[in-house]
Write a structure and sequence with these properties.
about 550 residues; alpha+beta; 8-stranded antiparallel β-sheet; 7-stranded antiparallel β-sheet; 13 helices
Length: about 550
Amino acid sequence: MSDIPQNAVSPDNPLAAYHARTRHRFEAFAEGPGQLDWDAQPCAFRHYAGAPVELLPLAAQRFDRPFGDLDAPPATPVPADVASLGALLELAFGLSAWKSWGASRWALRCNPSSGNLHPVEAFVLTAGLPGLADGLHHYDPERHAVEGRALVPADGGRWLAVGLSSVMWREAWKYGERAFRYCQLDVGHAVAALAYAAALLGWEVAPLTLPSATLARLMGLDREADFPSGRLSFTEDEEPEIMLAIRASGLQAPPAGPALIDWLAPASWYGSPSAIDPSPGYRWPIVDKAAHFSRRPADALPALHPNFPALPPLPAHPTAGSAAQLIRQRRSGQRFDPRETLPRAAFYRMLDALLPRPRAPFSAQESDPAIHLLLFVMRVDGLPPGLYLLPRTPGTEIPSGLGAPRPVHDFAPDCPAHLNLVLLAALGLQEVQRLARALSCHQDIASTSAFSLGMVADFSGLGADGHAYRSLLREAGIVGQVLYLEAEAAGVRGTGIGCFFDEPVHQAFGLSDPHWQSVYHFTVGTPVVDARIETSPPYPQRHQENP
């Protein structure tokens, strides 16, 4: 990364320098396109023409249960077959609705994405699953189907894994050099969406530590015939991201890395990938370089199971809403009503759900918890507006120069002591609103909500491990997905905010240590729904198939 200046945060890690280069500043935004041609937007769906297509059942309702029960397995174990696989993929990556306004029509998905651009593609590797051929399949969310990419002879094994890749150009087209950040946040959201869908079925998701080259081979992303190199190949390439094993009753663990390659070796390959963008107007080489330096090397160490702090169990959510209902209704709020407030108990519950416990979705993350929260509290009943701090792991020292912090439990005894929520500075409502709005790229949604927050992490631990940067951003996406669903369960709505002014955020909260860096913002409030936008079902041509 010779064109990225060395950065004092972690001089041995070029990804820390990439992060510094792509920070927004009051004086200038990170490099991106000056204007967008929405008629030339990259294709949101990829298909493999010529591959055999298997429509999946829309079976999520068959397995649905209360959102508050996800920590406990269902009364009757859900078998792994084509119906339960359909429910898993539908609630993780499927369409949740179609929206239209005038002549414009666009799809929403169960997994959120920066700008609704959806760089993440999902693949299924399976053996011995009733109703589906053994091999590698690409998931097509537009049709809720799988396309058989590489089919292998049955060998008696019975296991299931899901692989994720990202088409980085989908984000780079709009966000320029910052796109690699957003792709990793989206991967984190997708991992969490998969973990929640698996929990509904009583299944678990566990990441597999595989070198990036092995991931590319297992998802067919290194096939020169399908992804030829060339001047414009950056628009079509998919970046291998992660492979996750599905743990369910009757399933074995997938073969180890080299054995997985051997399993796929005799495959018959089918289909050619559709084009994403045949005529791009820009190119952002720094995005490709960030991907290169953050790939997991061939000599990657075995998986390290994340260390979770000792915390009391998270109580079941009091909502009567079903998990599938909340997952499908999840939206990004576009406007919030500043006249509405959030009950204090609901606020505490959301923060408690963000603490890392060995449960879905945090059990699906790759590394130890590293994300902590800086909060702009504005409209939470009974709490003074101001700047707050939530360290997500007990004992974490986050240096702040804002004076004497006050534990919230000291002046609000109903605040759970294990949250370790701290008031850094009590401010007037208007002052907090101005700060929240200005620091989130002057967006009203950060100031008209009940609260907004910035996610920060200590970059000093990155060292020379480039992949650690991906893991950190993905954890932020996982935290964001928890906020999305917890907000829906509380009767409000969340919105991820990728645009913020990094250094001014640090200054506002007194973070003078340059090792601490911002990675993602989020906001939660009472939504104002635009009645002009029409909503229609995700798969209207197949609604009869719902049981």
